[in-house]
Amino acid sequence: MARSRSPHRAAGPRAGVATDVVLQFGEGKDADDVMHAHSAVLRVASPVIDAMFEAGMQEKQLMKIPINAEVASKKEFEEFYELLLPFGPWDFQLGAANIKHMFRISDYFQVERLRCKCVEYLRSASAAVDLLVFAHKHGLKDVYARMLGQVSSVTKDELAPAKDSPEVALDIAAALSSKLGGLQTHVDELRNNTKQSPPYCSFEDKLKRLENKVKTFLERVPDARARK
Fold this sequence. Notes:
Largest sheet: 3 strands, mixed
Number of helices: 11
Structural class: mainly alpha
Order of helices and strands: EEHHHEHHHHHHHH
Radius of gyration: 23 Å
Number of strands: 3
Strand content: 5-15%
């Protein structure tokens, strides 16, 4: 008679089960901000972590690895760590909910196999402004170029993720202008105006000026589309 599987599943690695390293997330000192793990598993997967221990760095002496919040949260790293464990999740799939943090972690810690899987996913993903910003930030030039080529329309709300990425906003405007026609002049004006900002303008002021000009450009897009 086959044994039924226990309905109880541990929520991430358990402290005290042959673990020998602590991962510290953020600056908190609470138990919720740490994760217990196996250094051997991490070292085999990541040459970066292996180098930390091989070189006798502070991480080896304290058996504690700080994880920057820009790389991963505790929850995100737990998902990554489970992939490394024997008998890890067999039904794991990359998707919109995890692609960004899986790429960040695998890129930062040089886990090449997972990183390649992430890039492969992004190369076939539908174009979206947030993914364009992500690809631009992480230097994924082929992913960025392919998604720009797919852009056919974008609303002001959809452009919101590019608020702090003026170069991406301008590239989207240029991609739209080439498809809608008659708007290249406005794109050129946007680029020239960013270069001709008064020298006394702060970086934040320049970003605000650019944001307003991109919004003005996008308001003209429906008119151009209607004329075609």
